[in-house]
Write a structure and sequence with these properties.
- The structure is a single chain.
- This protein has 250 residues and is an alpha/beta fold.
- 26% of the residues lie in helices and 28% in strands.
- The strands form two sheets. A seven-stranded mixed sheet has the order 6-5-4-7-8-10-9, sandwiched between helices. The chain has a three-stranded mixed sheet with strand order 1-2-3.
- Strand 2, helix 2 and strand 3 form a beta-alpha-beta unit.
Length: 250
C-alpha cells in the first residue's frame, strides 16, 4: 500500500487503508521536525514566529507573521512535505487576529478562538444558523472557514460551498474534511447522505459553468478521510492551471 500525500514527485495517491496509529504518531514527529528545519534554514520563511503541530498528518500553524504573503509561502512549503494531509492555521497577520468560522461545530471547535456556527446550541456555538439556509455573515468578512464532517450530512452541499466562497476574503481558505467513500465511517453513520472522494474536490474546483470557483492549495486522502484546503478564485489569473490540478487530481 502507498502512503497518501505529496511525494517526491508531487503526486497524490490514495491508499486503501489508513496507516497504523503508531506510524501516524511517528510520521507526525517527522513532519514537525521537517517544518522546524524549514523555519530555521529556509530563507523564504526563516525566523517566522510560527509554531507547527501535527495531528494525523494535519499541520496546525499558530503564531504571528508580518504579511499574508509570508504565511502563504509557509503554507505552500509545509504542504509539499510527504504525508501532509492539510495545512490548518490560526495565525495573527500584521497584528490582526483572523476571523475563522467553524461550521457545524457541534461541541468542538478546531481552535478555541473560532466562531462556532451550528443549528443547535452547545458550549462551543456562538452563532445559531441552519447551514442549508446560507451564512449570516457579510461578503468578504472571514479569513478561514472550517467544514469538518459537515458536507456528508447535506443532500446538496454546493450552496454551502458557494456561501463559504462569498464570505471569505481574498486569500482566505476553506478547510474541508469528510469521510472517504470507501471507508466504513462513510456509511456507518445513518445521517450521512453524501459520499466524497478526492475527485469530488476536483469537481468543486473545476466544475464547468460554476460562478464561484476554487483553487486547491492542498488535497489528500489518508484512507479514512478526504482533506482539502481551497482558496476562492476571484480573477482569471487565480485559476488553477493543469500542472497544479495534476498535483492533486487524476
Amino acid at each position: 500500500m502507498t502512503w497518501v500525500g505529496a511525494g517526491d514527485g508531487g503526486m497524490v495517491t490514495t491508499r486503501m487503508f489508513p496507516p497504523s496509529e503508531q506510524r501516524v504518531r511517528l510520521w507526525d514527529d517527522h513532519l514537525a521536525t521537517a517544518t522546524s528545519e524549514l523555519l530555521k534554514y529556509d530563507d523564504r520563511v526563516r525566523g517566522l514566529a510560527v509554531e507547527a503541530r501535527f495531528d494525523g498528518g494535519v499541520a496546525h500553524l499558530t503564531g504571528e507573521v508580518d504579511h499574508p504573503e509570508r504565511l502563504a509561502v509557509l503554507r505552500e512549503l509545509v504542504g509539499r512535505l510527504d504525508g501532509v494531509m492539510a495545512v490548518w492555521d490560526r495565525v495573527v497577520v500584521a497584528g490582526r487576529e483572523p476571523v475563522i468560522l467553524d461550521l457545524g461545530c457541534g461541541s468542538t471547535k478546531q481552535y478555541a478562538g473560532n466562531v462556532g456556527v451550528d443549528q443547535r446550541m452547545t458550549g462551543a456555538v456562538d452563532v445559531l444558523a441552519d447551514l442549508s439556509d446560507g451564512l449570516p455573515f457579510a461578503d468578504g468578512s472571514v479569513d478561514r472557514v472550517f467544514v469538518v464532517h459537515v458536507l456528508e450530512h447535506l443532500v446538496d452541499f454546493l450552496p454551502l460551498v458557494d456561501e463559504c466562497h462569498r464570505v471569505l476574503r481574498d486569500g482566505g481558505v476553506l478547510h474541508v474534511m469528510s469521510p472517504w467513500w470507501r471507508h466504513v465511517n462513510a456509511v456507518a453513520d445513518p445521517t450521512h447522505v453524501r459520499l466524497l472522494d478526492i475527485q469530488t474536490i476536483k469537481g468543486i474546483c473545476v466544475q464547468p459553468g460554476r460562478e464561484r470557483r476554487w483553487r486547491p492549495l492542498h488535497a489528500a486522502c489518508d484512507g479514512a478521510s478526504v482533506f482539502a484546503d481551497l482558496t476562492p478564485v476571484r480573477r482569471q489569473e487565480d485559476e488553477a492551471d493543469p500542472v497544479l490540478l495534476a498535483r492533486f487530481f487524476d
